User: Which sequence fits this backbone?
């Protein structure tokens, strides 16, 4: 299980950007394209290779005035899923 002090980062060759053709945020990895949902987009916008999972959770909990525990569950699940798929390193 990932802990809150872990600092997620995009793997080499992975880009997170707004695709004007699709009019959506996309995560481009070598030979892969991910179209994250709205929750994942907000999480990925905070992945900078310096910010810890706890800092990401704190930011989102404050911004959306949501319970920290619920936000933490979503953040960790999203980051672990993208790590398993090879887009992020934890």
Assistant:
């Amino acid at each position: 299980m990932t802990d809150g002090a872990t600092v997620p980062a995009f793997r080499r060759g992975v880009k997170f950007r707004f695709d004007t053709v699709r009019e959506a945020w996309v995560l481009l990895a070598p030979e892969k394209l991910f179209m994250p949902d709205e929750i994942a987009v907000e999480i990925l916008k905070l992945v900078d290779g310096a910010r810890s999972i706890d800092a990401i959770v704190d930011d989102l909990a404050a911004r959306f005035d949501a319970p920290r525990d619920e936000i933490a569950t979503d953040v960790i699940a999203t980051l672990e899923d993208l790590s398993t798929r090879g887009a992020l390193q934890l």
User: Anything to note?
Assistant: The CA atoms of residues 8 and 90 lie 5 Å apart. The chain has three helices and five strands. The chain has a mean pLDDT of 94.
